[in-house]
Amino acid sequence: MSDHVYRVTEIVGSSSESVDAAIRNGVDRAAQTLRNLDWFEVSQVRGHLEDGRIKHYQVCMKVGFRLDD
Amino acid sequence: MSDHVYRVTEIVGSSSESVDAAIRNGVDRAAQTLRNLDWFEVSQVRGHLEDGRIKHYQVCMKVGFRLDD
Amino acid sequence: MSDHVYRVTEIVGSSSESVDAAIRNGVDRAAQTLRNLDWFEVSQVRGHLEDGRIKHYQVCMKVGFRLDD
Amino acid sequence: MSDHVYRVTEIVGSSSESVDAAIRNGVDRAAQTLRNLDWFEVSQVRGHLEDGRIKHYQVCMKVGFRLDD
Amino acid sequence: MSDHVYRVTEIVGSSSESVDAAIRNGVDRAAQTLRNLDWFEVSQVRGHLEDGRIKHYQVCMKVGFRLDD
Amino acid sequence: MSDHVYRVTEIVGSSSESVDAAIRNGVDRAAQTLRNLDWFEVSQVRGHLEDGRIKHYQVCMKVGFRLDD
Amino acid sequence: MSDHVYRVTEIVGSSSESVDAAIRNGVDRAAQTLRNLDWFEVSQVRGHLEDGRIKHYQVCMKVGFRLDD
Amino acid sequence: MSDHVYRVTEIVGSSSESVDAAIRNGVDRAAQTLRNLDWFEVSQVRGHLEDGRIKHYQVCMKVGFRLDD
Amino acid sequence: MSDHVYRVTEIVGSSSESVDAAIRNGVDRAAQTLRNLDWFEVSQVRGHLEDGRIKHYQVCMKVGFRLDD
Amino acid sequence: MSDHVYRVTEIVGSSSESVDAAIRNGVDRAAQTLRNLDWFEVSQVRGHLEDGRIKHYQVCMKVGFRLDD
Amino acid sequence: MSDHVYRVTEIVGSSSESVDAAIRNGVDRAAQTLRNLDWFEVSQVRGHLEDGRIKHYQVCMKVGFRLDD
Amino acid sequence: MSDHVYRVTEIVGSSSESVDAAIRNGVDRAAQTLRNLDWFEVSQVRGHLEDGRIKHYQVCMKVGFRLDD
What we know:
Twelve copies of one chain form a homododecamer. By secondary structure, chain A is α+β, with helices and mostly antiparallel strands. Chain A has one domain: Dodecin subunit-like (2-Layer Sandwich), CATH 3.30.1660.10. Helices cover 22% and strands 57% of the residues of chain A. In chain A, strand 2 and strand 3 (53-66) form a beta hairpin. Chain F binds chain J through residues 18-20, 44-50, 52-54, 57, and chain J through 19-20, 23-24, 27-28, 30-31, 37-42, 63. Chains A, B, C, D, E, F, G, H, I, J, K, L: Pfam families: Dodecin (PF07311).
């Protein structure tokens, strides 16, 4: 109804499993301290390699949440 | 043999499951109305959050298809 | 200890299964000929379509590795 | 409930009045032929000049709409 | 005199009226909790459509403010 | 006189001859089904290689055309 | 008739009122010294904040004008 | 020998013939008023369409020239 | 061992001396309030001019730090 | 049949004749040392000017080739 | 007080010493012919190599200056 | 005289001292194995932080070198 304002924070989630899990880990951690999470958008997918294998997928993403009026 | 021309359309596929499923859902829907689909390229991965969890993965992508001569 | 120098090479991994598998296939192939792989970053996710289905996921990525001193 | 798919079309709205009016004119025209319009995003603001004055504001924008299931 | 350091935060202001009002709403809300606001820069103009009309203009912007020494 | 609205479509023209011919082939094909073509802008120049030679030049371009009032 | 050449200059217009006014102020000033102004395109919208309010809207834009043959 | 400084100016060359001719026309015109031209780089290739044909190729480019010491 | 999550904050460091000093000043200030700083990346180098001289170098950068588990 | 991996190398072809010739010269040279060339994509078109004329067209491009399994 | 308009010019400063010196050389040269210089922003850092060493650092930058009312 | 072809390789130089030193270290290492180095261009400046201080400056850059005819 009113004209909401949102804040956007940038996080990097990581996972040794998959890109999707890295996104979920990042969102889960953000949800521990931020309320009213509304959307995310991925800005980069990268990862750390060790001994020729993927050690961690790392997903940089912006997370938007609604500020209280 | 001849010099083909392609058209590129932009769609957003969504899924509550995963990034891959959102891509597949988008391609499936495009295939219902377009023939000769040839390639896709992802332009953005984002999603909708509700109660601190991922409600939908949303993948914006361009889909190219060959036009009849 | 010393100031390392890294080289970055660009590869495209593909898979008929998933985005994650395309990334892994690319890294596996790079690891056959390059030592000291250190990180990767995805620059594009695309794919080839045939008969209205995804035939191959193709992931362009940069792979960084440490050069010997 | 289901996993919706959206299509994105690109239009250029113009107006001799203002940037906002050019956006509204573009949306109005799109609404004449497309149903279920959902969002727009501006990709460029430009304009045509004549005799040292702004003759038309031109706003390029992407417009997304939900495809029927 | 001294070498100031600034922090940049990202917000999305919205308004049912106009792009300018969405910017102002975003700045007003930021000013409730942040001191020494110094500049803003728009990174995206988008909006929500309903029944073929603009329901909300949404302006993503970065806001910079000076940190205390 | 009135405030025109334009639509932008994205096509890929190809040619075994040259970049210019690929652009012309794309425009020619678009002109078969679209009226009031007004401008084009090239977004990418690429091509297909076979046996170490250029088999096809491929030019991605946006083509704008005026919608009827 | 002949193949015109255009020059593009970059200016920043400002206004304490609105984005549109900042664009107009920039164009007005350019028109004082340049003839045959033909188009403008906005490259950035930003502004200066003071006491938690917008002091000036600043619009960076490119202005194109036709050179005499 | 000394540390030269260059200036970069932006022009748009046009031609009814080809992309290459549009580049040459732009450079030729720049050479009428600027000395010590050193390099150019194309920033956009576009064109004007009329009756379903290319009326003009338009090439936006930056042209760099050495300033006298 | 566990799948860390990082937050990325954006700051602008300034210095009347050099680009490097502006980076260091920004990092020093961030270290006063944030723990577990892990990396920075420069997004823009700019500066303020006065009387034809560089008054301040200003370096915009993103700073990443590890969140506690 | 299998999931191919490609490598992408970046080259700059030059020619005193035309953009197309610069592309061909770059591809020809790459074909002397690389097998299984598959595609190219232009990343920049620029050139060297001397005495107010185009001395060399220079085309930066990425060239992709299939790695042996 | 009034709504200033600024012009932005693009220059390339060079130096055999350092990136900072290349920036300063560019600003110094601009200050010889332009008044009211207000800011600069670096758009590219590059350089010329000879015999395996850096012969010149070259910094492309935009320089903004206030136009007289 | 002839139409040279160049190859572009991407490296990351690092230094605990400064941005300039990281560039030089990268160029020095490249010069050990590549002949006819011609230019470099910086694509990213970043660094590693430890205990709230800059441990390493890391400069990603492209290095171009002339291929033998």
